[in-house]
C-alpha cells in the first residue's frame, strides 16, 4: 500500500524508517559524510510527508553499534545533513524511544521533521528474540500514528524498526522502496535481451545466491573485482598473492560448467593490474591474467579486459552491475570500474547499479547519477531480492 492509502496525514505523527547508513570518516574528531547518496535518496518521501502536514519522525541506523549508545555511531551529523538537503530545520532526539524522543516528537508542529538517534543503540532493534523485538517495537509505535517504510537498504532485515513496527501501526511503502522494487522486478521478470550482469567486489561467497539465480536469466556474466581471482585459480591459473577463497574453487568450477550448459557466456579478464602490495601505486603494472607473478597481487582488471567488458555491454538492453572491478579508491586501480561505469551510461535500455560499493564508486568517480537507469540504495537488500529471497520488510507491508 502507498502513502496515499494512509489518508489525510495533516497533524498526524508519521514514523518513517529511512536507510541513512552512510559512510563516515573522522577528520580530527569531526565526522565527515563521504557519500550522502542515501540521505539524498531519502529526501523525497520525507518532503512529501512534511508537505502533507504530517509531523515527521525519522528512524534509521548508522553502522553496527553493539545495541548500546556509542558516540562514534551517532546520527547527529546525518540529521544535520538531512536538514541542509531539506532546506529546513530538523530536530534531533538524543535517544530513540526515551525522554528526548517523546519530548522531540511532542514539540513537532505540522510539517516539522525530527530524526531519532541511531535505532541500533537499542538492543531490541536487532534482537533475534521475537518478544524482545516486539517490546521495543511497541515503544517505537507509541511515538506515531502511522508508519512509512522507506529504507530500502534494510528491508532484508527482520528488525524492529523495519518489520515489527509495521505490525503495530497503519503502514505504507514509501516511494523509494516502491521504485526500487519495481526496477528489481524488471531485472527478474522477462528482462529485455541481451541481459548482461557484471559482478565484482571482494568475495564470491557474498554472491553465490545471486549467481545461482541470475545464471538462469542472464545472457552474459562479466566477472571482475577481488572475486575474480578465485575464478581464475579455478581455471588453473596462478594468482600470486591476490584475494582467494580456497573453499569456493569448486563452486566457481561448477558455475563455469553450468553457464556453458545453459549457453550463458562467462567473461573473465584476460589482463590484470597488479602491484607488490595492497594499494601500492608505484609498483602498479599490467600483466596477462595467465602471468600474475607469485609475489604480486591483482588490484584491478586490465585495460584490455575493461574494453572487452565495455564491448559486451554495448548491445545490452538490460544490465545489472554489482561490485567494483578493482580498488577504485586508488587512482591506479580505478580504470576497470571507470570503464565499466562509462559503458553502463551508454546502455540503450535499463542499466541498474546495485547498491553499496558500486553506487559509491560511480559517484566518487564523478559520474552523474542521472546517466544510469537506476542506482539502488540497497546493497544486501538488492542482492537478496535478486536471489529470489523474501524480504521481511516488504512481506510485512504486503500481508493481507
Ligand atoms: C546497508 O548498508 O546495506 C544497509 O544499511 C543495511 O545495513 P546492515 O547490513 O548493517 O544491516
Automatic annotation (TrEMBL):
Complex formation: Monomer.
Residues reported in the UniProt entry to bind substrate: 19-21, 38, 61-64, 120, 157
Superkingdom of origin organism: Bacteria
Principal localisation: cytoplasm
A single cellular component GO annotation: cytosol
Pfam families to which the protein is assigned, alphabetical: PGK
Functional pathway: Carbohydrate degradation; glycolysis; pyruvate from D-glyceraldehyde 3-phosphate: step 2/5
Residues where ATP binds: 207, 298, 329, 355-358
Record-listed E.C. numbers: 2.7.2.3
Annotated keywords: ATP-binding, Cytoplasm, Glycolysis, Kinase, Nucleotide-binding, Transferase
GO molecular function, one term: ADP binding
Catalytic reaction list: (2R)-3-phosphoglycerate + ATP = (2R)-3-phospho-glyceroyl phosphate + ADP
Signal sequence segment: none
Compartment list: Cytoplasm
Protein name listed in UniProt: Phosphoglycerate kinase
One GO term (biological process): gluconeogenesis
Lineage: Bacteria, Bacillati, Actinomycetota, Actinomycetes, Propionibacteriales
Keyword S-adenosyl-L-methionine in annotation: no
Similarity annotation: Belongs to the phosphoglycerate kinase family.
Binding site for (2R)-3-phosphoglycerate: 38, 120, 157
Claim: Cytoplasm is one of the keywords in the record: yes
Source organism of the structure: Nocardioides gansuensis
